[in-house]
Amino acid sequence: MAKQAIEIIASEDTFKNLSIFENIDQLNETVRAHKEIFENELNKTQIAVLDLLHRYSAKYKGVSFLTKNKMADLLGKSRRTIIRACNHLEELGIIRQYEMKRSSDMQQTSNAIVIQPIEQPVEQPIADDTQETVKMSHQENNISLKQTHNINTIREESVSKKEIYPSFIPKRFIEKVRSYFPKVDDVYQLWGKIRLGYLHANVERPLEDLTDMAVNIVNDSIAALKLNRINAGQSFDALRRYTYGTAHRVFLTVKRQETVQKQPLINFLEPSKSTLVQKLEELSVEW
């Protein structure tokens, strides 16, 4: 597969436009909040990478352009380790990586890595099908007081166990995944893989407009897991990797379609004239 063309030129104006924070205090508070929110999902290396990006993001607040090799040298890690750490941070929505090219020769240069603001989702409960409201009458249904008490107790326990899902994840995606993986963290991780595939494809359409694709991607991935068609095995980690690969391929197709739509149409039915014929026509006069 051909490498996708890099469209963003590294320049001072680009870095200023990528900067999200108004001052250093906002940046500091955001990084602190990210580490608190994702405390259980970040290891020491990933936290060290985030801290390093934070320290080198002062000129353009939140924007760093350290190379992966430089980061590896500063932290005493391998380049592959740094790449994996950055991809994990991007998957969680903590950073976003932008491929850049130089204006001088249009060749690739170091990525711009931008620390992202905290998403403030309003959590929404997704009620289980078993939690439908059932109105019961003691007199009409001849249910004893003890039976009524037991039913109410069961219903209270059922309500207390319902999961709370972030509102920025589409409900249809949640409904598809939770029937197989009901834990919030599982749903969140699979959505993160969808989002990462979308970001790496550089699709222009917003992700919320591609919900149908996202649902189809995770549906196909779960089906592949159930049919034992994932080469990496039957673990949830294998499913996560498979979901990302599928999402990346699908969104690359969307990106190619967007690129084709931007290109001017060529009329192949109208014969082109040679330069000589055009010159002769210009020199010709009416008799």
Descriptive notes:
The chain has 287 residues and is of the alpha+beta class. The chain contains twelve helices and six strands. The protein has helices at residues 12-18, 24-37, 44-55, 68-75, 79-91, 138-141, 145-160, 171-178, 184-201, 211-226, 236-262, 275-283, and strands at residues 8-9, 63-64, 95-101, 108-115, 124-125, 164-165. It has a four-stranded mixed sheet with strand order 1-3-4-2, sandwiched between helices. Helix 8 crosses helix 9 (184-201) and helix 8 (171-178) packs parallel to helix 10 (211-226).
Write a brief structural summary.
The protein is an alpha+beta fold and 287 residues long. It has helices at residues 12-18, 24-37, 44-55, 68-75, 79-91, 138-141, 145-160, 171-178, 184-201, 211-226, 236-262, 275-283, and strands at 8-9, 63-64, 95-101, 108-115, 124-125, 164-165.
Please describe the topology of this protein.
Layout: E1 8-9, H1 12-18, H2 24-37, H3 44-55, E2 63-64, H4 68-75, H5 79-91, E3 95-101, E4 108-115, E5 124-125, H6 138-141, H7 145-160, E6 164-165, H8 171-178, H9 184-201, H10 211-226, H11 236-262, H12 275-283
Parallel strand pairs: 1-3
Antiparallel strand pairs: 2-4, 3-4, 5-6
Helix pairs in contact: 2-3, 3-5, 4-5, 8-9, 8-10, 9-11, 10-11
